[in-house]
Amino acid sequence: MPLVRQAPSLHIRQVLARALEGEPPAPEEAHGLMAAEGADLYALLEAASALRDRYKGRVVTYSRKVFIPLTNLCRDVCAYCTFVKQPGEAGAHTMTPDEVLAVARAGRLLGCKEALFSLGDKPELKYPSYRRWLQERGYATTLEYLRDMCALVLRRTGLLPHANPGLMTEADIVMLRPYNASMGIMLENVSPRLLRPGMPHHRCPDKVPARRLETMEAAGRQRVAFTTGILIGIGETPQERVDSLFAIRELHRRYGHIQEVIVQNFRAKPDIAMWDRPEPGLEDMLRTIAVARLVLQDMNVQAPPNLAPREYRWYLRAGINDWGGVSPVTQDFINPEAPWPKLRELRDVCREEGFELRERLPVYPEYVHRPEFLPDGVRERVQALADATGLVRRELEGPY
Ligand code: SF4
């Protein structure tokens, strides 16, 4: 990607110099950075990269995981979703306990430490047949079933669950917490405008931003190390992206629990309502990652490598310090057309860019030695796997 190595504008230089001294840009300054091009964009990336180096060094992390799509039924209808199915549709499926265990065991054999449970949001409120399926097994809600599947995986395989089931009340979080090393929900975007007719979250009751922020806040009160992030290219404005980053930062300031912020790019696929919408280009992605680094400073910033297979090395130059979960076993069920790069390739790309790739747990190093963030049933397992820095012990890292 050609970038112009010339002098950036005076204003950009001043904003970046302050950010490098630990003073993040104000919202209106960050809005301005979202228009950076040419020399200004080059300077923005350099500043973000320098900040990452200062706070995180030259170690980039990933979590070795299996993906457990517990159910692909959902009551929402996001216009970019390929994961969701309706009961009776080809591919609609809710995993049985045996299926869950089989995936987790396969992961364990290949050195995985994380079981990522990703699933649709409250399908029992929409589909009577699914409600009956749950009731026949003694459950009133998907989240009760999820709790037992997290407990099963933790107990029988030692993989550390990370639940990502959509909106959760504080009571839901309390119920799931004993069996999860961390949990998450993508904020996606803080703008309620995206719920209007013709927008991607129209008729998606679980995508109301205020409710997602409530879930994140409840996780903070319950001391859960929490993953969130933004989804870019779904019809939001650059300013709304930035406002979403500030909303996440504000919650982290209050509770200190946001363990990572994902910057995820929309991918157009033939079978989604947004099939003809443009995808964010590489410069757009880099600009957003770099602004995230400046706004979030020492927080962990992640971008998934499988959604830009030819270009992801550039993310390192924009300030990320993590690749997210990478699976040697399961495909990315949310983006099934986008396989993860081989771990060896990821390691080699990191080396070529001057970084060391290290394995982390689903709970980030910052929280590994803070007992208040680790439930009793999880703490022992985490500490058996982690070294003094909170990363996976070198001798236990999975093979490349
Ligand atoms: S993106 Fe998530 S909430 Fe939206 S339809 Fe798909 S599974 Fe449901």
Give a quick precis of the structure:
This protein is of the alpha/beta class. Helices cover 39% and strands 13% of the residues.
CATH architecture: Alpha-Beta Barrel
H-E order: HHHEHEHHEHEHEHEHEHEHEHH
Q: What's the rounded overall pLDDT mean?
A: 95
What ranges have pLDDT less than 50 throughout 5 or more consecutive residues?
none
Helix proportion: 25-40%
> What is bound: which ligands?
iron/sulfur cluster
* End-to-end CA span: 29 Å
Fold topology:
Blueprint lengths: L9 H11 L6 H7 L4 H19 L2 E11 L27 H13 L4 E5 L9 H9 L5 H16 L2 E5 L5 H7 L5 E3 L24 H13 L4 E7 L5 H18 L2 E8 L16 H15 L4 E2 L10 H4 L5 E5 L16 H10 L3 E5 L4 H4 L7 H10 L15
Parallel strand pairs: 1-2, 1-8, 1-9, 2-3, 3-4, 4-5, 5-6, 6-7
Helix pairs in contact: 1-3, 3-10, 4-6, 8-9, 9-10
The structure holds iron/sulfur cluster (SF4).
Supply the key terms.
TIM Barrel; binds iron/sulfur cluster; nine-stranded parallel beta sheet; 14 helices; alpha/beta; globular; 13% strand; 400 residues
How does this model look, in words?
The protein is of the alpha/beta class and 400 residues long. The chain has a single domain, classed as TIM Barrel. Helices cover 39% and strands 13% of the residues. The protein has helices at residues 10-20, 27-33, 38-56, 97-109, 128-136, 142-157, 170-176, 209-221, 238-255, 282-296, 313-316, 343-352, 365-368, 376-385; strands at 59-69, 114-118, 160-164, 182-184, 226-232, 258-265, 301-302, 322-326, 356-360. Strands 1, 2, 3, 4, 5, 6, 7, 8 and 9 form a nine-stranded parallel sheet that branches. Helix 9 (238-255) runs parallel beside helix 10. The longest helix has 19 residues, at 38-56.
